[in-house]
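Lab notebook, bench 4. The sequencing result for the construct came back, and we need a structural model before the next group meeting so we can plan mutations. Quick request posted to the team channel:

Model the 3D structure of this chain.
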Amino acid sequence: MTTTHKHKDFASVYDSLSEIPDDKRLDTFEMEFRGRDVVNEYLSYKYGDGDYHEKFVNQVDRAFQTWKEVCKQNDCHPALAAPHVINEWCISLVKNAKRTTVKDNYLSHINRFYRYMKWHIDYPHCYNPVQFAVRDYEVAKSVWNCRVGGEKDGE
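Done. Here's the predicted structure in token form:
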């Protein structure tokens, strides 16, 4: 018997971003998150107990540092980004790395971050913008759907 975990990565109960009511959109919670480092709260909770290999923790830190930078450039809080910001991040990352590297070393960590917030009542998240990005934008979709060994040079 095999177990599926596809439910963990569903975008939302809403079929599209346009269906999400204005008062549920992440950008409406900017004041609630202002001055709060939710990323470090998450990283401390998830990886702060020392159970993870140092190389892995450094990889996660690198992913979140680049994520914070792209959010700053797009004037959004790292916990409240829109799907287009995620796609822009993917576009910038694939310029210097293979899609599998971007997926495994960057996008998957941000996806887990948003999935965590969506499933915990301490956060107002009713959708995962990473999952909307990989559904609605070609570059993010190509990164998310890539398979190890499935890329040709230059892709």
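Confidence is low (pLDDT under 50) at residues 1-8.
Will bring this to the meeting.
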